[in-house]
Amino acid sequence: MKRVIARAPSNIAVIKYMGKLDSSLNLPSNPSLSLTLDRLCTVTEAAWSGPGEFSLRWQGASSLGEWQDLRPMEIEGGLALKKMQRHIARVASALRPGLVDLGAWEIRSGNRFPAGAGIASSASGFAALTLAVARAMDALPEGERGGALLSSLSRQGSGSSCRSFEGPWVAWEGERAFRVASPSLKLADLVLVVEDRPKTVGSSEAHARVLESERWPGRLERVAARYADLRRLLESDRLAIEWSRFSELCLEEAMDMHGLFHSSKPPFNYMTETTREVLAWLESEPSLPVAITLDAGPNIHLLVPNEEAGAVRRAVEQRFDWLSILQDLQGPGALAGARA
Ligand code: DP6
Predict the structure, then answer these.
(1) For 174, 209, 237, 262, which has the most beta carbons within 10 A of its beta carbon?
(2) CATH code of the domain in which 27 resides
(3) Is residue 24 classed as helix, strand or coil in its secondary structure?
């Protein structure tokens, strides 16, 4: 069996994918825009038997090749295994049209971030799996269009994964994710891990429930305006000059999404007392050069100019010495990943 290893980073959305037009294809209600991370990633090994009866054996891995200290990505329950099986079949049949017997697959996978730490393992997980399957079949499509194909297949497994193939700034509109011009200011992401318990409402369910929120009407207009503004900031290289606008935009968008959660029927909430306490403290420290965002979870992401990351981290640690903090940089995405 041919064994290959692929690695894909997670990404953090500034403009959020929340609400689907079509949940079988993961087509989003609105455009989104994210920053691709670097070291916070999933590493996946795939081994393929070649054409034959289709089967899948999945194992969590704590080390793969040069990658040590991985957090094994276990699959819990038959449903999750079926989802992975469906995804492998989707990718394999798209890359080898006409192939009926999709063969035996052995997958081993691990994350370079702790579970439940506010890093979406489905984004890096599906991107790494898609890439590993393509490499194991020797069917890695070349060039920009090949990247678009893998990204679009990956999206059908989990929407946000389509933005992890390139970097650092990636937009996603409808069926297409694409890199947008990246500004000269390079960012770091400090993830303040407020809580590491699994979420009570998964993001797929959140996508469905927000459609019932009384704040849903108007959401598409609000998000479109922020999306256009962020693209303008990035493409005109004004991120540094208009940092306070960027920072405002990040928080407004995150709060808009959480507002949808709080007003859906029935409402749900990811923020804890600690989330609110840390947010209030950040608000009281306007001189900190941070742009705040949250995903569908209680943890807080601080986007910070690279050269300020150390100082910001120290300030947070001084105030909340019990918080665990993950630190990462913006990165080039799975396809450009240098090593795997
Ligand atoms: C809040 O990509 O996890 O992180 O397509 O159902 O797998 P599925 O959802 P998923 O949603 C992520 C939502 C988000 C915002 C974002 O990353 O844009």
Answers:
(1) 209
(2) 3.30.230.10
(3) coil
Distances in Å between the Cα of 177 and the Cα atoms of 119, 139, 160 are 20, 20, 10
- Please tell me if the CB atom of residue 154 comes closer than 6 angstroms to any atom of ligand 1: no
User: What total number of domains does the chain contain?
Assistant: 2
pLDDT at 337: 60
Range of the domain at 282: 187-329
CA distance 300 to 316: 12
Ramachandran sector of residue 333 (left: φ over 0; alpha: ψ -120 to 50; beta: rest):
left
- Taking alpha carbons only, the member of 88, 59, 85 closest to residue 72 is 59
Let me know: does 33 contact 218? Beta carbons within 8 Å.
no
Same domain for 16 and 163: yes
pTM > 0.85? yes
Q: What is the 17 CA–ligand 1 centroid distance (Å)?
A: 6
The finding on whether 158 has its CB within 6 A of some atom of ligand 1 is yes
Q: How far is CA 45 from CA 73, 94, 110, 111, in A?
A: 12, 20, 9, 12
Can you name the residues that pair with 32 across neighbouring β-strands? 172
For 38-85, how does the pLDDT look when each residue is reduced to its tens digit (9 = 90+)? 999 999 999 999 999 999 999 999 999 999 999 999 887 777 889 999
Polymer length in residues for the chain = 340
Other residues' Cβ atoms within 10 Å of the Cβ of residue 205: 13
Q: Which atom of ligand 1 lies nearest, measured to the CA of 16? A: 18
Alpha carbon nearest to ligand 1 atom 6, residue: 204
Q: Is residue 335 part of a domain?
A: no
Residues 161 and 29 in one domain: yes
How many CA atoms lie within 13 Å of 54's alpha carbon, on the beta-carbon side? Answer: 14
| 103 shares a domain with 153 | yes
Return the structure tokens found at 197.
């318990």
**In this structure, which residue's CA is closest to atom 3 in ligand 1?**
203
Distance between CA 19 and CA 32 in Å, rounded? 11
Give every residue of the chain whose pLDDT is below 50, as ranges.
338-340
Measured torsion, CA atoms of residues 277, 194, 10, 151, in degrees rounded to the nearest 10: -70
Conformational region of residue 237, where left means phi above 0, alpha means psi within -120 to 50, and beta covers everything else: left
